[in-house]
Design brief:
By secondary structure, the protein is mainly α. Helix content is 72%, strand content 0%. The protein has helices at residues 4-27, 33-39, 44-50, 54-77, 83-100, 102-110, 118-136, 145-156, 158-166, 177-189.
Length: 198
């Protein structure tokens, strides 16, 4: 069990991450550690005691948010055994998360930090589990489950890429897009009679 001191530190780290996400979301890559420290009511020296530099802060934001997404997707999948339903659920949850957390994706896609990390791998692992079961049970074409998961995740993150890399922040997720992504994905990987390998 965490000590009171550890609990206080964890609470402060969470407050700093929320503030940093706010500042980075507003200012983009030009946001400085000084600006983040000022908004968090910290001195620059105090901020550096928690995070040695801006890349470390961005990585911490990524870990925090992808951990939330992993929990969200796993909970949404609970009790759903139909492969097509699971794919639709994954696409919907990923896109809803993007829609609810626009600052996160602005930060991650404009600060040029690698997107992998422990929390991302846990999130991806939830999707890999779904694909592995589908392949094992003969509901999906025989391909590497991690590759199938990567395809679905990439397709589902396409709106964030469009918003922050291609078209600009006025681009929004069309309500029908999660279903379209799920249907296109399933049309390519779902095993039907007379189609598929292995």
């Amino acid at each position: 069990m965490a000590t009171l001191r550890e609990q206080r530190r964890e609470k402060r780290v969470h407050e700093i991450l929320e503030t940093a996400l706010e500042v980075l979301g507003e200012r983009g890559p030009s946001a400085s550690m000084d600006q983040i420290a000022e908004r968090a009511l910290l001195t620059r020296v105090a901020l550096y005691k928690y995070f040695p530099d801006k890349p470390a802060l961005v990585r911490a934001i990524r870990e925090w948010k992808f951990a939330q997404l992993a929990v969200r997707v796993r909970e949404a999948l609970a009790g759903t055994t139909d492969f097509a339903g699971q794919v639709h659920t994954i696409a919907r949850e990923i896109m809803a998360f993007q829609d609810e957390n626009p600052a996160v994706f602005r930060v991650l896609l404009t600060n040029h930090e690698p997107q992998s990390g422990e929390a991302f791998e846990r999130f991806a692992g939830v999707v890999v589990e779904v694909m592995a079961r589908a392949v094992e049970e003969g509901r999906a074409i025989s391909r590497a489950p991690d590759e199938l998961a990567g395809l679905l995740i990439t397709m589902s993150f396409e709106p964030a890429f469009k918003r922050y890399v291609v078209f600009g922040e006025d681009h929004f997720i069309p309500p029908h897009l999660p279903e379209l992504v799920a249907e296109v994905f399933l049309g390519g990987v779902m095993r039907v009679k007379g189609r598929g390998r292995g």
